Every structure is written in structure tokens, then in C-alpha cells.
Amino acid sequence: MSTQQRFDRLGERAWGYDPAQVDDFLDRLAAVMRTTTTPPALGAHADPVAGPGTVAEPVADPADVTDPVTAEDSVASADTAGATDAAREPESAEAAQRRRRLGSRQVREGVFDRVKGGYDPGAVDAHLDAVEDELFAREKAAFVAEHGTRRWEEHLELLAGLLLGRLNRPHGERFRRPSSHRTLGYAAADVDVLCDRLMDALRGEPEVDPRLVRTAVFRPAQGQRSYEEQQVDAFLDRAVEFVLALRP
Known about the structure:
- With 248 residues, the chain is mainly alpha-helical.
- It is 46% helix and 5% strand.
- Helix 4 (121-147) crosses helix 5 (149-167) and helix 5 (149-167) runs antiparallel to helix 8 (229-245).
């Protein structure tokens, strides 16, 4: 694990991201990025219609997607920088699997504990956004190289249909409620405002800024005034994927 301080730390009384967790995650990402200078191919289990970073499984609702296998599953183990085969200790199968599974989706879904005096979340998030963009561009290029432009277009059409099906629902009915009326969720009004903005952007702009979705913040709410957090988060994850996929 790297001992270098990668980001500014907050004050001793301020809560930031756990530096040890962030450093470990970035070290794993660095290993993935060093594996090849060309875009990695999709794994054998990836669905060419579903696109990069997904597994072949029927998906009726983008908000119900489970954690996917990434395009990195086909990448061979990377050499440690500056190490020789004789000096490098063999990587465990579990460690190799964790590293190979890192892709743009895993970067987007990364979560770190909060600790006092931790890394500045804004700086970490901005860095990870840039890494996600680069990884997704690699995954897209590899997908097109292996399956062709038409299959990529089919993936976009499928994803667009799933997203629009959700966005076209009436206010207050776009997502399900939490299972218990006492469970906190996202304020439905806030989520609906973002959905409206996303719909307007997709209709009127040739390229949508992913920060529209990445920086979304919703107030907590309960009962009929709320949406289930997990379902909203899953939908927004696919929305970011679609926005990135639209880039030339």
C-alpha cells in the first residue's frame, strides 16, 4: 500500500474519507491501469448488447441491476512497478480477482468510511470521476473493437429505453417507497427535480455533463414523501453510464 499522502487532509475535527481505504483503492486502480496500454477486451461472460461492465442477465428495470462483472475480467495480472518476476511475490487468487473486477462501474460505486482529519472528499471525488471517464473510454473502445459499432448502438438504444421508461413516469411515481414508513429515503420532490433536469438535458444538449448526476444531493424523507435510496442510486448509476456512452 502506498504511504504517500495523495490528497489534502481536512482539519482534525472535520470528517473526510478514510485515507487508508482511499489509498488502497487507488493502488488497486493503478495496477489495473498498468495492465495494458490498449483498451482491454470484454470478459467472456459479458453481454455484448448490455455493454461494457455488465453481465448477461435479463434486465427489466435499470434500477434493479445487481453488481456487474466488469470489462477488466479479461485482463491478465499486472507486474508491480519496478519489480522483477524473481523478486515479486505471487498474487493470491482472491487479490487478483478483486483487482481484475475494478472497472468504471466500480469506480463510480466506490464508498469510503468517514474519519476525522481524512482526505478532502471533493478532491478525491474529482480524481475518481476523471479515472472513471478514462476507464469507461477504454471499455467502450474495447467493446466496439470486439463487437462492432452496431452492437454498441444496440446497447445505447436499450439503455435509453430503460432510462426513458423511468423518466417518463409521473412525479411521485418514478421509484418505489422504502419498505417501512419509518425508513429514511430520498425526498421524492428532490429526485423528481433531478429527473426533470436530466430529461431536459438529454432532449436539448448534444453532450450532457455527467456532473449533473454525479453531484446530485437529496434531502432525507420518510413515507409517501420519499423514494427508496437503493433504487434511485441504481438508476443514477445507469444514467451516468448512458451519459458517458453518448460521448464521441
